[in-house]
Write a structure and sequence with these properties.
The protein has 386 residues and is an alpha/beta fold. Helices cover 38% and strands 15% of the residues. The chain contains 14 helices and twelve strands. The mean pLDDT is 97. Bound molecules: pyridoxal-5'-phosphate (PLP).
């Protein structure tokens, strides 16, 4: 199906609601039946009928259809957060005694799920350098059931060879899961490479306006049904119809937002790389990136996220540079309209916290929808203090 069809029409049945161009927010917790036969049908297949909004709501269902189509998946679930989507996809595929192989620097709460939470239930894990297929294969044990990927990740952007990973997972009977938030389905569709489940934080690009937290899981009908009837219905990890409606609205411009963010980030990353006060820039589509060839092979672009190392070892200099930036908001997250910066320095000297595994001169930028030249002018001013 054409991307334009998905974003503009697919999943919407306008004749059911007065041919309104925008879908309605069906703000209802439950749905009534005309007769017992229909009631019975809905009870037998709650995922595909309208019985109760914890299971399936018509507004959320429009979004679900669009997201599944975007990833080339048979079905999808829309949930309350990206972290929740990750947890559900993993937990549906493990039991006590199982082992998970995961890339070594996943999203922080993925790491916490594996290292801090699942050990309580007797599930172990190994973090591996996912850049090397041999490392992944070496970590697999007889009790391994899940291979968890994130390509690229969100601070240093290491990639995994998705086709190679899918083949390893198939050979060892593992469920392969990928956090595909960075590329979004516009730039990378892991199911086409043979990955079983794709999870996203829709908080980032899918919604794209920094006003909703949500997550999605995409996969085969069978796998989605399994997650639905265990984790989803039991843990009640759902979003409101109104939030789903906002994300549908966000999706109308997904393609143009993601492309603009990528192109602007590439332009700024290239400019920074040439600047004498910059030691190094990490961005998957810079020719200097160690996995540039793999990026070109399996991705059509990437998120407007890059990481910069200033030519300094002093935390005061990094802080002074950061403080001079006027056009980047100082905030976590990414994927919205607004450009952002997260300085590693902020994670140093936090009472009760270990310092991060990154140096003080490192800053992670996100480029939103502003004019890239206007952002470059801001960086140029701030770099004067370095
Ligand atoms: C933000 C993020 C998450 C978590 O998503 P939430 O919607 O905040 O729960 C997971 N993975 C990646 C790569 C992220 O950037």
């Amino acid at each position: 199906m054409h991307l334009s069809e998905i974003l503009t029409h697919f999943g919407e049945e306008r004749k059911n609601y007065f041919n309104a161009v925008a879908p309605p927010v069906i703000q209802s917790s439950n749905f009534a039946f005309d007769n017992i036969a229909d009631f019975r049908k809905a009870i037998s297949d709650e995922l595909n009928h309208h019985l109760y909004t914890r299971g399936n709501n018509p507004t959320v269902e429009i979004l679900r259809k669009k997201v599944a189509a975007l990833e080339g998946a048979e079905d999808a679930l829309i949930v309350a957060s990206g972290a929740g989507a990750i947890a559900m996809a993993i937990m549906a595929n493990i039991k006590t005694g199982d082992h998970i192989v995961c890339v070594q620097s996943p999203y922080s709460w993925t790491k916490n799920l594996l290292a801090g939470y699942l050990p309580r239930f007797g599930v172990s894990h190994t973090f591996v350098d996912g850049r090397y297929l041999e490392e992944i294969e070496k970590a697999i044990r007889p009790e391994t059931s899940v291979l968890f990927l994130e390509s690229p990740n969100s601070m240093t952007f290491e990639l995994q060879d998705l086709r190679g990973c899918a083949q390893i997972a198939k050979r060892h009977g593992l469920v392969s899961i990928i956090d595909n938030a960075n590329c979004s389905p516009i730039f990378q569709r892991p199911i086409e490479h043979g990955i079983d489940l794709v999870v996203h934080t829709g908080t980032k690009y899918l919604n794209g306006h920094s006003d909703v937290v949500n997550g999605v899981v995409c996969g085969s009908k069978k796998m989605i049904q399994k997650i639905f009837s265990s984790e989803m219905m039991t843990l009640g990890n759902i979003i409101s119809p109104h939030d789903a409606w906002l994300i549908i609205r966000g999706l109308r411009t997904l393609e143009m937002r993601v492309k603009k963010s990528f192109e602007s980030a590439l332009k700024i990353a290239e400019w920074l790389e040439r600047h004498p006060k910059i030691e190094k820039v990490l961005f998957p589509f810079l020719p200097s990136f160690p996995q540039f060839e793999l990026a070109k092979k399996q991705m059509d672009g990437c998120a407007g996220l890059f990481t910069v190392f200033l030519k300094t070892e002093k935390i005061e200099v990094a802080e002074a540079f950061f403080a001079k930036l006027k056009r980047f908001l100082f905030a976590v997250s990414w994927g919205g309209h607004e450009s952002l910066v997260v300085p590693t320095a902020a994670f140093y000297n936090v009472p009760g916290k270990e310092p991060p595994p990154y140096p003080v001169n490192m800053l992670r930028f996100y480029v939103g929808l502003e004019d890239p030249d206007w952002l470059i002018a801001d960086l140029e001013e701030a770099l004067k203090v370095v």
